[in-house]
């Protein structure tokens, strides 16, 4: 049934020509048809780790823990980690998938081209937070709904940011290297190790994650600054002691530590370039768990090499997975990891539950929690405009 | 003349049973043992904790006519320290490169009056022998409490969130999210117990509060009820009852005869399987092999800290090579910020010593033959 409808749609589009944005926004209604759906999920492979932990639901093998639930309702659930290139497993299912579940930790790039070919596609769900791997304007034009599990990893990422601030400020990694190499040289660590107390920490962006970070920073007795389009509510400002900085470029030179907490959008792409990095204090520590492409890759590597940046840490890169020769792997004083901060076991359980909840609402023709929408009825959420 | 006076004073002091720390004006011989700064010494003018930086007090001491000998060479009968044992009046040591002040060395140190610890933790000194010899022992209480508390929280996060395998992947050119994510957890909602809720333990609990954990603490004394309420930590009178409840255990007790080796195989077995243990207190509180074995078996999912026994740790110390560790050399209390604080604290106590004044009361570890309560 779904295939016949798809065929009818395909015939209609063929008449319109290949490059016309092919469906009026209302037409791929999210309250369409009961009946069996084809759900495709792209997640990272668990490999030998898949069997070690039954709660490891975020990997392809465990498939968010919803296979039984989906199949018992008669839906088809295809899960893969193979997402890149014209012959990948994902490509085989583009033409007829109704729902595509992706995750920022192994992102399937949902390009305009893929959207154009995805004739049955109605819904894009992000298992996690951050849907910049989806061409959102194309999705909006095609009448798709895009939603993520807002809130599912905010605490995870805030904890992780604070950890990386401390790793870099306290100069932990050189000490650890000494320990595992049989060495002992206190001076090699202590000459550039500092307490976090009393330092000036600025967060660029004070949305959900930024605020949780400010709350966790409070007992460290730092000077807390934040920049955002909007002020946070006065009670939270008073509780955290954080001061609003209307001008980003005025805030940056004041900071010993800068943490990035905004989404990747056309406005923020590459915003931390050579010039903006130069405005920061010499010896600044930067933590970026937001998106790699917010930074100019080369400018960061150069600044770490000169020492203008005393330490750069984060779990996001452009692109992901990061190639073997990505310069951030080898620059001095880095605290990088693959993209993991939001995919702790605790984070996985939350976003798996959130995806399941949205699928259930989708099957029943119900709306999602309002804060989960990234694209709805042709419009992009505020932070992406 | 100075020697005659010194000899007379010693006779009097011995008769009195004390080497009074507020005696005589006149030139003193101050010896300091610190870690060497090497090529790093010149990189940071605030790097006062190394031998070359010498706590930043050389000019101040020498301008008052005192003699100041500083070395990192502290081990064995022919070391630089040994050459000065006999006639030094004051010995400044530091836990980050500890000069072991044994009963034997104390006996040979005929002029010695005062032992100052640049930092916190004076267990590298034979305290009963120091007390019996009438020495004063003092440390810079409070100088590194914040530093150590921050560092403990850092190591908890590193281990719970499984940071190090991710970092290793990066520098080795790899990318395998599953290799990290299958055993990475948030701190939120976990049960964290601190063994000891003195200065550092309390600062740790305060920093843990916004993480929304279940906070427990064990100590001889209960914390003041207002502070307990503010922090949201629950008192656990029985250590062995607290341990099995904890996802994370942090050691915050001094090393004393009571605490030496207290975390042995039996006590570790009482902890939850998969526990995370952080110890920035003293290495000898743990049974070295028991920790290594528990990390190998996975009973301990992660062990981290900056203290070992002995220090410096030998090349083959098992904690360097056990799985899932977050060890470093002894550094948490010797950040630049802490160095500046303990250098100032030592300078202040030397100033008081020269003037015959008492120290801040909480700095005393041994005074007039008595040990401070935490060491009794």
From TrEMBL, chain A:
InterPro entries: D-isomer_2_OHA_DH_cat_dom, D-isomer_DH_CS, D-isomer_DH_CS1, D-isomer_DH_NAD-bd, FDH_NAD-dep, NAD(P)-bd_dom_sf. Residues 163-341 form the D-isomer specific 2-hydroxyacid dehydrogenase NAD-binding domain. It catalyses: formate + NAD(+) = CO2 + NADH. It is found in: Mitochondrion. One of its GO terms (cellular component) is chloroplast. Substrate binds at residues 129, 153. The record marks 291, 339 as: Important for catalytic activity. NAD(+) binds at residues 154, 208-209, 228, 263-267, 289, 315, 339-342. Keywords: Mitochondrion, NAD, Oxidoreductase. One of its GO terms (biological process) is formate catabolic process. It comes from Miscanthus lutarioriparius. GO terms for molecular function: formate dehydrogenase (NAD+) activity; NAD binding; oxidoreductase activity, acting on the CH-OH group of donors, NAD or NADP as acceptor. It holds the Pfam family 2-Hacid_dh_C. The keyword Transmembrane helix does not apply. Catalyzes the NAD(+)-dependent oxidation of formate to carbon dioxide. Involved in the cell stress response. Residues 72-366 form the D-isomer specific 2-hydroxyacid dehydrogenase catalytic domain. Its EC number is 1.17.1.9. This is Formate dehydrogenase, mitochondrial. Belongs to the D-isomer specific 2-hydroxyacid dehydrogenase family. FDH subfamily. It is an enzyme of class 1 (oxidoreductase). Homodimer.
TrEMBL record, chain B:
Substrate binds at residues 120, 144. GO terms for cellular component: chloroplast; mitochondrion. SUPFAM superfamilies: Formate/glycerate dehydrogenase catalytic domain-like (SSF52283), NAD(P)-binding Rossmann-fold domains (SSF51735). Its main location: mitochondrion. The keyword Oxidoreductase applies. One of its GO terms (molecular function) is formate dehydrogenase (NAD+) activity. Residues 63-358 form the D-isomer specific 2-hydroxyacid dehydrogenase catalytic domain. PROSITE patterns: D_2_HYDROXYACID_DH_1, D_2_HYDROXYACID_DH_2, D_2_HYDROXYACID_DH_3. The record marks 282, 330 as: Important for catalytic activity. Coiled coil: none annotated. Homodimer. Catalyzes the NAD(+)-dependent oxidation of formate to carbon dioxide. Involved in the cell stress response. Belongs to the D-isomer specific 2-hydroxyacid dehydrogenase family. FDH subfamily. NCBIfam families: PRK07574.1. This is Formate dehydrogenase, mitochondrial. It comes from Miscanthus lutarioriparius. The lineage of its organism: Eukaryota, Viridiplantae, Streptophyta, Embryophyta, Tracheophyta.
């Amino acid at each position: 049934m779904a295939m016949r409808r798809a065929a009818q749609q395909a015939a209609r589009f063929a008449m319109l020509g290949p490059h016309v944005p092919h469906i009026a926004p209302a037409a791929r209604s999210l309250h369409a048809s009961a009946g069996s759906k084809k759900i495709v999920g792209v997640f990272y492979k668990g490999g030998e780790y898949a069997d070690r932990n039954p709660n490891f639901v975020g990997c392809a093998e465990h498939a968010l823990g919803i296979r039984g639930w989906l199949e018992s309702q008669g839906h088809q659930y295809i899960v893969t980690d193979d997402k890149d290139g014209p012959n990948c497993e994902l490509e085989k299912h583009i033409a007829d998938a109704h729902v595509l579940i992706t995750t920022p930790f192994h992102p399937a790039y949902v390009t305009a081209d893929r959207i154009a070919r995805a004739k049955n596609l109605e819904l894009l769900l992000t298992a996690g937070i951050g849907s910049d791997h989806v061409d959102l304007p194309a999705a909006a034009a095609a009448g798709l709904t895009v939603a993520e599990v807002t809130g599912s990893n905010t605490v995870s990422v805030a904890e992780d940011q604070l950890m990386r601030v401390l790793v870099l400020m306290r100069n932990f990694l050189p000490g650890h290297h000494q320990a595992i190499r049989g060495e002992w040289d206190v001076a090699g660590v202590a000459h550039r190790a500092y307490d976090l107390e009393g330092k000036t920490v600025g967060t660029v962006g004070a949305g959900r994650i930024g605020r949780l970070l400010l709350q966790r920073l409070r007992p460290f007795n730092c000077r807390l600054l934040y920049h955002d389009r909007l002020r946070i509510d006065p009670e939270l400002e008073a509780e955290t002691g954080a001061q609003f900085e209307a001008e980003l470029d005025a805030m940056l030179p004041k900071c010993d530590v800068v943490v990035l907490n905004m989404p990747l959008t056309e406005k923020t792409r590459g915003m931390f370039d050579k010039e903006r990095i130069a405005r920061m204090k010499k010896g600044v520590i930067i933590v970026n768990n937001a998106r790699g492409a917010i930074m100019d890759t080369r400018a960061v590597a150069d600044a770490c090499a000169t020492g203008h940046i005393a330490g750069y840490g984060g779990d996001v890169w452009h692109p992901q997975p990061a190639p073997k020769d990505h310069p951030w792997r080898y620059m001095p004083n880095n605290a990088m990891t693959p993209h993991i901060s939001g995919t702790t076991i605790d984070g996985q359980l939350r976003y798996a539950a959130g995806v399941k909840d949205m699928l259930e609402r989708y099957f029943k023709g119900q709306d999602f929690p309002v804060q989960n929408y990234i694209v709805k009825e042709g419009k992009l959420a505020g932070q992406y405009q | 003349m100075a020697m005659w006076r010194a000899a007379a004073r010693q006779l009097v002091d011995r008769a009195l049973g004390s080497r009074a720390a507020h005696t005589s004006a006149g030139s003193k011989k101050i010896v300091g043992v610190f870690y060497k700064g090497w090529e790093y010494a010149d990189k940071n003018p605030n790097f006062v904790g190394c031998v070359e930086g010498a706590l930043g007090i050389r000019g101040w001491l020498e301008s008052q006519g005192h003699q100041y000998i500083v070395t990192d060479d502290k081990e064995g009968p022919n070391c630089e320290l040994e050459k000065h044992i006999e006639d030094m009046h004051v010995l400044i040591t530091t836990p980050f490169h500890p000069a072991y002040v044994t009963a034997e060395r104390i006996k040979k140190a005929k002029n010695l009056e005062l032992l100052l610890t640049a930092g916190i933790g004076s267990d590298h000194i034979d305290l009963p022998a120091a007390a019996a010899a009438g020495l004063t022992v003092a440390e810079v209480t409070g100088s590194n409490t914040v530093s150590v508390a921050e560092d403990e929280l850092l190591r908890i996060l590193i281990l719970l969130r499984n940071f190090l395998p991710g970092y290793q992947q990066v520098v080795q050119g790899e990318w395998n999210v599953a290799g990290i994510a299958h055993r990475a957890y948030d701190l939120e909602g976990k049960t964290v117990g601190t063994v000891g809720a003195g200065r550092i333990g309390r600062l740790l609990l305060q920093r843990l509060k916004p993480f929304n954990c279940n906070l427990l603490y064990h100590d001889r004394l209960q914390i003041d009820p207002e502070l307990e309420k503010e922090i949201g930590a629950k008192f656990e009178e029985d250590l062995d009852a607290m341990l099995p409840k904890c996802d994370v255990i942090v050691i915050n007790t001094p090393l004393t005869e009571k605490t030496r080796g207290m975390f042995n195989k039996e006590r570790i077995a009482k902890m939850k399987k998969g526990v995370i243990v952080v110890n920035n207190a003293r290495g000898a509180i743990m049974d070295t092999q028991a920790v290594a074995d528990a990390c190998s078996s996975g009973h301990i999912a992660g062990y981290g800290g900056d203290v070992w026994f002995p220090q410096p740790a030998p090349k083959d110390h098992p904690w360097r090579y056990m799985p899932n560790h977050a060890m470093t050399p002894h550094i948490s209390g010797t950040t630049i910020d802490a160095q500046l604080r303990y250098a100032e604290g030592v300078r202040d106590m030397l100033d008081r010593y020269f003037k015959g004044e008492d120290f801040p009361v909480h700095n005393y570890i041994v005074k007039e033959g008595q040990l401070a309560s935490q060491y009794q």
